[in-house]
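Look over both lines:
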Amino acid sequence: MTNETLRSGYHCVWQIHYHVVFPVKYRKALMDSAANAIITETAEGIFQRCAIEMEAVGCDKDHIDLLCGAHPKVSPGRIVQIFKNITAREIFRQKPSIRKELWGGEFWTDGYYVATVGERCDWNTVEKYVQKQGKPKTDLSQLKLFD
């Protein structure tokens, strides 16, 4: 999905991008090149099967960064849940030795970080636009949300 692409469904049009970060359990540095390959390949499968667009996947030794998008009805928490469940299952299936490094048998920690990523305007522009709604116009020009 490119930065300018608007997605559409039956009753809405959206352009939502999330930056999601979640670490390996106990912050263990278990993300080697084999685990990275498994995650990247699995992310492509998630894109094909689920309503989640994986825009970029970045793997470090102890955490993963995702840049993804989804229909507004799919919450960021649900994206994390889908991604964690499917990737952990695949890592344990393809690299069973990793399970010995983790005492509880979970690959990912319970927590995560998520933020929306804007591309058309900044917070101040939207805030100014919202604050001027419903107020009498001092001039005849309409304040534009986007340039």
Notes: The first helix runs from residue 33 to 49. The radius of gyration is 20 Å. Helices lie at 33-49, 76-94, 123-131. The chain is about 30% helix and 20% strand.
